[in-house]
Backbone:
């Protein structure tokens, strides 16, 4: 099972990207919002596959209330993934299932493709 980080590594209003399959580009992001961790694919629903951030870990708006796609400025609710303003209205980010262990370690709930390759 793929470890991402420890839950305490992300403070409130902080987001971080991860590339568990080693593709060279962060495939998902974790964000702590209202005390909870949420994981989303780093892919904007406006133009499928478009990465959200313009530089590493720059996923949030300046007020840290929304995840922002910097291509065309769509804003997403960090808890639900729904687009709340901008070019992707009516769509949502894709959730990534995570698991927080008793010791606080955060893992992907499902193996990465590399882990399932024989
Ligand atoms: S690609 Fe994300 S808002 Fe257009």
Residues:
């Amino acid at each position: 099972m793929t470890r991402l980080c420890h839950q305490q590594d992300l403070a409130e209003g902080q987001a971080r990207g991860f590339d568990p399959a080693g593709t060279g580009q962060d495939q998902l992001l974790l964000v702590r919002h209202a005390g909870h961790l949420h994981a989303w694919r780093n892919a904007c629903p406006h133009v499928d596959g478009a990465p959200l951030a313009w530089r590493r870990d720059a996923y949030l708006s300046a007020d840290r209330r929304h995840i922002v796609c910097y291509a065309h400025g769509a804003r997403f609710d960090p808890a639900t993934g729904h687009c709340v303003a901008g070019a992707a209205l009516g769509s949502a980010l894709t959730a990534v299932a995570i698991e927080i262990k008793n010791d606080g370690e955060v893992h992907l709930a499902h193996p990465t493709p590399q882990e399932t390759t024989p």
